[in-house]
Design brief:
6 strands, 172 residues, alpha/beta
Length: 172
Amino acid sequence: GQSSEKLGLGDQTPPPHVLLTLRDQLAAHGLSWPEDWQSARQSLFGGWEGQKSKEIALLPGSGHKNKEWPLRHFTTLANMLKAQGWEPLFIIGEAELERGLRPPGGMKCESPSPPIILAERLRKVRAVVSNDAGPAHLAGMYNIPGVVIFGPTSPKIWGVPGLINLIFPGKK
């Protein structure tokens, strides 16, 4: 089996190359990187509030169709979650709406925008299941439990700290 570190469980530290890039960008503007960056971020933007929620956010979109776990799989997952007493919530972005990506009728669906509204909405769910996309990274920033599904991109490069990063073998 894989170690929890390889899956991203409990590790909220971004990869070293990301930290160095952020520090360099801040330094170029005369700003310093706070040593306790997680607390600084949380004091500015808040944290996860969905510990008692029954909603599980399903984010089937991504920046490119090749990075999307099939909608039918998200639908199957939503039905399984519902059967166990959870409340699946599809969150669909504007690009996906334009492409016609919609969950089957009767499934709860929202499209919170702009990103700050999306972040506020995600903070209130119990967990997320997402393709490799920006909203997954928002979830990671807020310490929201969840799973990110990768393919064809690599979680070794683009993985979300704190979330379980999985490679879907059928994605190419």
